[in-house]
Amino acid sequence: MRESILLGWMFRYFRRRERTRELQAAAGWPAVAAKLLAGKVVERDELAEGSVAQMFQVEFEYYFVLGEEFYGGYLRSVPCSESEGRRWTRQVEEGLAVTVRYDPQNPDKTHALARDNAGTLPFGIWEM
Description:
Blueprint: H1 2-26, E1 31-43, E2 56-66, E3 69-76, H2 82-91, E4 97-103, E5 106-111
Antiparallel strand pairs: 1-2, 1-4, 2-3, 4-5
């Protein structure tokens, strides 16, 4: 039992550390306008800290074009309640433009950063 708790903690620690590194690198990547597809309410990521009532997040898939190639990714809201998440999915129209950053060496690697999209969405973007 103790070993599984320790392994779970270590897994989250290394995942959080890797995510922090990726987000720091993404801040220097080129930015591009992307279009959102329909959103859905999903269970909160284990790294997304929220209250007991905030067990969900809203997830939107996005896509953008570089040259003639399509690329995409996902952005997630900050933690929320299920009813709040459903309201947010209704408030955000499909096709809404958001700013995302992509790795020029590997455009399949993308991140939507909160600072690039302040005021664009009715919720905050979860980065950590």
